[in-house]
From TrEMBL:
Residues 91-334 form the ABC transmembrane type-1 domain. It is a multi-pass membrane protein. It is found in: Cell membrane. Residues 370-583 form the ABC transporter domain. It holds the Pfam family ABC_tran. The chain crosses the membrane at residues 54-75, 87-106, 160-183, 189-209, 274-295, 307-326. It comes from the Bacteria. Coiled coil: none annotated. This is ABC transporter ATP-binding protein.
Length: 584
């Protein structure tokens, strides 16, 4: 037990090390060219909504500039009043500017969020479509927790880029130019001082924090994904863990994951805090320096009107918010880039097979049989062939049983016949069409798989049976349920077929879940059905009934049944054995 624990721990450490290596590699990659490419890609997605973005920038810039002008005019008016000069025009103008600034800020937020939410909707759809294309072969390799993190938090984080990054940067740039010019009109030295201060706060500081914030943010997201994966794994495997007395190890592992995530989060917060402190300190220093310059200009006589000098100082003091927003982006935006990289990496993942969607690919007519000729296959990360020159012919009406030792390649063969994976040699044809040329929807209509693990959705029992044919009539559903020996399950619930099942059907036994899967198959009109251990969780009596029902309901369809059970294989018209990557 201790050995197993140590072994597992080594495995985990190896995993963590490889993750860290990946992080470093990704970090380097991003520093070299990936980061720029990614930002370019994020911009590209905005292009169709450029009009909304421009409105946000216009409103935001105007709002900030009006706020600065309001203060400058107000200060000038106040000093003029003190000196007994005309002050009303400035005061009225200040009030008008102040009043207009509010609606402009509102317009900026409105347009920014309009843009962000429309983009996020499109990205979510794109990610969901990608996951559909990658399933099932490629998604197995990604932790469920990581996928959950991506679908929820990562995509939400992109909102930060689209709503709070692009327009603030453009607004800060515009305000920098306009404010510097206005101050330069008052005095060129003041304009120059303001410009340098803006560059320091809005450009130099975010640049200085760029790498460290990216690294810490990326680590935090990876740790969070790891924690989600381990958490879901321990929930899914809780029965085994309790039965094997391994709960303690799991608790320790989750604690270690939580500690790692908390540490990573602490590092991110430290960097964010430091960034804030330095930004505030730098802004204050700039203000003092600006005041000193204004003072020396007054002393030297270069700036004769103190009202103008004070107005410039007041305007400069309130002109920082757009730059501070950019400066803080340094810490806020980097987690977004980390999230974007993960989302784009998923979108760029090549599926195990290239599907033919909508009108692409050959449409199948009547099913005339399936042929596998000299098929070889190896998994991408392995050089050993699992299938080695395998031949198989299935005609309509055949019931073919396949047996073989564990690991012989039976499930792999099913994946190939369902085209979840492509062969690495030889060919598979369905109704004389090469399987890789067939339109995916057409292939799915011709082939149905009943696998050992049945997923139950949070829906009624009837809805769960009719999952692939939502248009099935009540009578058809009831017939399918009856044929799959589900009567006893229906009777056990007061509302029968309308009983609402919990997600993953915790109130059904494993054998009952398998019967739901068989009922789904009965409803299917597919002329070729594949069964991977369809009765492995059923008792002998139910198994016999279900198998007899399958044969009674065959109606000329072809069945391929993988099973270790002689009682199941006894229903086959031909039994083949998988050995050395071939069927014999
Ligand atoms: N995703 C994968 N990546 C790499 N190797 C894999 C993968 N899936 C399966 N294998 C390997 O391919 C071989 C065949 O596995 P497969 O699951 O097809 O066997 P099987 O005959 O269905 O076994 P069982 O009777 O236990 O269900 C095994 O050696 C297995 O370790």
């Amino acid at each position: 037990m201790a050995g197993a624990g140590t072994h597992r721990e080594h495995g985990r450490r190896r995993g963590q090390l490889s993750q860290l290596n990946q992080l470093n590699q990704h970090g380097q990659h991003d520093r070299q060219h990936g980061g720029g490419t990614m930002i370019a890609r994020m911009f590209k997605q905005i292009r169709p909504l450029a009009g909304v973005e421009l409105k946000a920038i216009a409103c935001g810039s105007l709002g900030h500039l009006l706020a600065v002008f309001a203060v400058m005019l107000g200060v000038h008016g106040a000093v003029s009043w003190y000196e007994g000069r005309a002050f009303w025009p400035q005061v009225v103008a200040a009030i008008v500017c102040g009043l207009l600034a509010g609606p402009c800020a509102y317009g900026e937020q409105l347009n920014n969020h309009e843009l962000a939410f429309r983009l996020l909707r499109d990205i979510r759809t794109e990610v969901f479509n990608t996951m559909r294309r990658l399933a099932p072969a490629k998604l197995k390799e990604r932790g469920r927790g990581n996928l959950v993190t991506m679908l929820t938090e990562d995509i939400e984080l992109l909102e930060l880029f689209y709503a709070h990054t692009l327009s603030p940067i453009a607004i800060a740039a515009l305000c920098t130019v306009v404010n510097s010019v206005v101050l330069a009109v008052i005095n060129p030295w003041l304009g120059l001082a303001a410009f340098v201060a803006y560059l320091l706060v809005g450009l130099a500081l975010p640049f200085a924090f760029k790498d460290v914030t990216f690294r810490t943010a990326l680590q935090e997201r990876e740790r969070q994904g790891q924690l989600h994966t381990d958490l879901l794994e321990s929930l899914d495997g809780r029965r085994e863990l309790i039965a094997l007395g391994a709960s303690r190890n799991t608790r320790d592992r989750l604690k270690a994951d939580t500690d790692a995530m908390t540490n990573a989060r602490r590092k991110t917060r430290k960097v964010t805090g430091l960034n804030s402190i330095i930004t505030d300190a730098l802004t204050l220093l700039c203000l003092v320096a600006f005041a000193a310059i204004a003072w020396s200009l007054i002393q030297s006589g270069s700036l004769a009107d103190p009202a103008l000098a004070l107005a410039a100082l007041g305007g400069f003091a309130v002109s920082f918010p757009p730059l501070i927003a950019v400066s803080r982006l340094g810490s806020g935006i980097q987690p977004t880039f980390a999230a974007a990289r993960r989302v784009f990496a998923l979108m760029d993942e090549t599926p195990a097979v290239r599907e033919h969607e909508s009108d692409e690919g050959a449409k199948l007519g009547a099913f005339t049989g399936l042929k596998a000729e000299d098929v070889t296959f190896h998994y991408p990360d392995s050089r050993d062939n699992v299938l080695k020159g395998l031949d198989l012919t299935i005609n309509p009406g055949d019931v073919i049983g396949i047996q073989g030792e564990n690991g012989a390649g039976k499930s792999t063969l099913i994946d190939i016949l369902m085209r979840f994976r492509d062969v690495t040699g030889g060919k598979v044809t369905v109704s004389d069409q090469p399987i890789e040329d067939i339109n995916t929807a057409s292939l799915r209509a011709a082939e149905t798989l009943v696998s050992q693990d049945t997923f139950i959705f949070s829906d009624t029992l009837a809805g769960n049976i009719a999952v692939a044919r939502p248009d099935a009539t009540r009578e058809e559903i009831a017939d399918a349920a009856h044929a799959a020996c589900l009567d006893e399950v229906i009777d056990q619930f007061p509302d029968g077929l309308d009983h609402m099942l919990l997600r993953n059907g915790s109130e059904l036994s494993d054998g009952q879940k398998q019967r739901v899967a068989v009922a789904r198959a009965f409803l299917s009109r597919a002329p070729f059905m594949l069964f991977d251990e369809p009765t492995s969780n059923m008792d002998a009596l139910t198994e016999g009934q279900v198998m007899r029902a399958l044969i009674d309901q065959q109606h000329g369809r072809a069945y391929l049944i993988v099973s270790h059970r002689p009682a199941v294989l006894a229903h086959a018209s031909r039994i083949l054995t998988m050995e050395n990557g071939r069927l014999g």
